[in-house]
Amino acid sequence: MPYGPPDVSVPGIRTSQDGTSRPSIFTTDFPKGEKTMATYNRTILAGNLTADPEKRFTKEGSPVTAFTVAVNEPRQKEQDREEEVFFMPCVTFGKRAEVAGKYLSKGDPVLVDGRLRVNRWEQEGQKRSKTVLIVADLQFLKKKENGQGEMTDPEGSMETPDDGEVLF
Questions:
Q1: 96 pLDDT exceeds 80?
Q2: What's the Cα-to-Cα distance from 4 to each of 1, 70, 114, rounded to whole Å?
């Protein structure tokens, strides 16, 4: 079996011409006259929570949980330098928000998968913005009580709801 991603057929995207069947995000094949560009917004991070999750509710009563994941990037060549730490604010909704609020706490290792969104607002006449990860999949990487394996999705399968209005 060849190494690499499985063959994927996406409307408007042609596979590469080098015979590898890798999708090419730079080659589009849209109907004549249609001016659409292929886009893809997905981020996957593994790290630790910097604080306990903050759970709130939308105006409609849907749960929303926010937390920040710290991702350490170790240095391989320069041993005397400290590792870099990247902080990513995350927001999750619905059942996933309930589970995150109930089971996660400061320091817990997690894997988050979602899309980036830039929230923009004005504060005291100054334009502000903040990039957040809208979490579509959340995996808990805590060790079980017996110290073996990983715990993922303790409440079963969770649907990804519409993110609605975010209160963070």
A1: yes
A2: 9, 29, 22
